[in-house]
Give the backbone structure.
Amino acid sequence: MVVQSRGLRDKYCIVGVGETEYSRASARTTRAMAVEAIRKAILDAGLKAADVDGMLDYQGGDSTLANSVASDLGIRFNFYMDVMGGGSSTEALVGLAMGAIEAGMCNTVAIYRSMNGYSEFRIGGTGARAAQPVRGLDLAQVPYGMRSAGQNFAPTFMRHMFEYGTTSAQVAHVRVAHSKHASQNPKALLKQRVTVQDVLASRWIVKPLHLLDCCLETDNATCIIVTSAERARNLRHRPVYIMGVAGRVSKPRLDFHWAHGPISRVAGYYAKDIIFPQAGIGPEDVHVTGSYDAFTFTTMLQLEEYGFCKKGEGGAYVSSGIIELGGKRPNNTSGSHLCEGYTHGMSMVIENVRQLRGAVDDYCPRAAEGVHTYDYSPGHCRQVKEAEITMNLGWAMPATGSALIMRR
Amino acid sequence: MPQPVQYRGMALIVPDNDSEWKEFYEHARAHRLVVRKCKACGLMRYPPTHACPWCMELGWTWHEVSGRGTIYSYEIVAHAIQPGFKEMTPYAVVLIELDEQRGQPTPDEALRVIANLVKPDFTAEAEANVQIGRRVRVVFQDLADHMALPQFTLTDEPPVGRVWRLPE
């Protein structure tokens, strides 16, 4: 089914971003963290609490709802909604925020995600999550010791290796690249650069995934503010325009996506036909990508499915140097989920906003003034020179994904 | 139906009003692997659903399948998440493509099932034997008077297509 573009390209902007410290022991509630992240994003935009009249957030029974965090900040709603979900929600909610504003329901929407993803509800499925009773659709997988994200996704990568000859060493380059980027990021939990050999020598979690193929469970809150381009022009930063958005585009049989193959195909197969026509560009026009790295191979699968390389050639693409700072099209320049901290996708959109502003928070002496050295040796710059168009590829699971194209 | 059923530290909950799974597990306890078959178009689906995903027909019947199939993909869990699986590591989770309805109604579709690849005594199959393309058959792991888990075990049949496992 063809989705007709509604002609909203460049009519909405992301004007504010903010996050708390990435940690593994926040020692506070998701409410406290959400308030900090939203406040930072409001101030970043140059707005006041009274200017924000819409709110969207997402969670999986592990966070605080909008009614309490908004009240803490003195925000009165014209629109709000709490949404169930994890990865791929960020881009989807950016689109819903545009829709709410376009419908005349509100003017400016703050989108947040807050979680104690390490110290309270571990994303990896241990602790409270592992103890939950098994019922309904979970009975098709969980009784077989298939509960965590890694366990849920691994057969997709295994089949890709079988069909296309993709190797562990190839996708290890995703970790290598993202660790390089994290070494330029004061916020990152893991700033140490790693090698392909480090990844391959790390212990097995669920074959074909090593420990270093997996992201970092993290405590944090993040916030993104969406408003109309008209309002954005009077705010603090140069506007970052939304060219196109696709939200939670899914493969058939979402109840049990294994029923519809090839299973090495992921949701971008469908999403690309929505987002690129909206934006009026193709993959070759994108300068920086943010491809959801819950695992090394999820980044690879999405880049290939959206057409940054041919289907089946994702392993060669991610190991070619293209995705590293200094390469043709750097991916996840903050170090993102594998090295910076796990945010359910929010941080990759935040990073691309900062890239488009020319204002990433790296170690350049004059970074605060937006002056960068473009020296990508350890402990220096991560600003991409003349980054004009970015694309986020959000992942919930092999069968569901979202996407967002922005420009400066 | 007495519940929950305890298995490897998990509480498996299949209440009397469970319109999807209750009868499925009762058939499994009688060592029959059943799927839902559409009364209109005749296509089968798994897991149990309430309308036909191809023609939206509401009518269906339980249909017993042979329980024979081929390993389509797999993983080897080295680090168990659920405490009750730690003693079973390393264990294989396999995606089985059943013989019935392969490549129907489109070449990309099949009746596929998730299970563990086990030896006949339900311990984990040796990792070296877990390979895409190997043939398997269903076995039933009895958990309670009214519930058994379908599992799969290797057979001696010749493999289907290329046989492959993750290189060491």
Observations:
- Chain A touches chain B at residues 124-126, 130, 133-137, 139-148, 151, 154-156, 158-159, 161-162, 167, 203-208, 252-253, 255-256, 258-263 (CB under 8 Å).
- The first strand of chain A starts at residue 12 and ends at 19.
- The two ends of chain A are 31 Å apart (CA to CA).
